[in-house]
Design goal:
Helix content is about 40%, strand content about 30%. A hairpin with a 5-residue loop joins β7 and β8. By secondary structure, the protein is an alpha+beta fold.
């Protein structure tokens, strides 16, 4: 990736609220344009082999009602599957989750007027308010930024030899630092004070990019 800031700026971010079975939660929304058509983007997001090329290896019963597991990451149940436009899954860490640990991720694909695909990813979770104050939306938003950029690289034909290793590379750490600042701005736009947004961005940067000199 030649221009980290440009890649971060390609994504629009919104912070809001939403309801899932666990209760009223916070939402992060990422919106990005891909040059590929919706069918190709859908295939990249639902085919096990392709998912492993830009995200993580995945196993499970990849159909409506089935269970999936991303290697070393989240697993869950496929709640809605309407190709090539809508995918909703539960997103759960751990083997013995509580009700509040069960969050939801929705991916929506729409043909873009200029061609290609408008990609939207919304993650809704009931979050401990102390943790929300400490990290804000960047706690999950930065990870999703890395993911949607990984998808961009894959769709544009750039091979990621080891997606997991790439996420710990200096380039990815620089991206994470820029992303945390962008999520701080989205947090403030949603109603947080400038001080609250700055604290959350600083804490998120320190978590994802501890070697970075970037400060909010």
């Amino acid at each position: 990736m030649s221009d980290i800031v440009d890649q971060v700026n390609q994504t629009q971010r919104e912070v809001g609220t939403g309801r899932i079975p666990a209760g009223e939660g916070h939402t992060v929304l990422l919106r990005r344009h891909y040059a590929a058509d919706p069918e190709d983007v859908w295939d990249a997001c639902t085919d096990a082999d392709r998912i492993g090329r830009w995200f993580l290896p995945i196993t499970g019963d990849l159909r409506l009602g089935g269970h999936y597991q991303l290697q070393g990451n989240a697993g869950g149940t496929i709640l809605r599957c309407e190709p090539p436009q809508l995918l909703t899954v539960t997103w759960v860490f751990g083997d013995d989750p509580t009700e509040e640990d069960v969050t939801e991720v929705e991916v929506r694909l729409t043909p873009a007027p200029e061609g290609g695909t408008l990609f939207e990813l919304r993650h809704t979770a009931v979050v401990d308010e102390l943790r929300w104050a400490q990290y804000g939306p960047g706690a999950v938003g930065v990870g999703w930024d890395l993911t949607v950029i990984g998808l961009h690289l894959h769709l544009s034909g750039q091979v990621i030899e080891d997606p997991a290793a790439w996420e710990s590379s200096p380039e990815a750490r620089e991206l994470a630092a820029a992303s945390s600042l962008a999520w701080g701005a989205a947090f403030q736009a949603s109603g947080a004070t400038a001080e609250e947004a700055a604290i959350a961005a600083e804490n998120t940067t320190a978590f994802y990019a501890p070697d970075s000199d970037t400060t909010p």
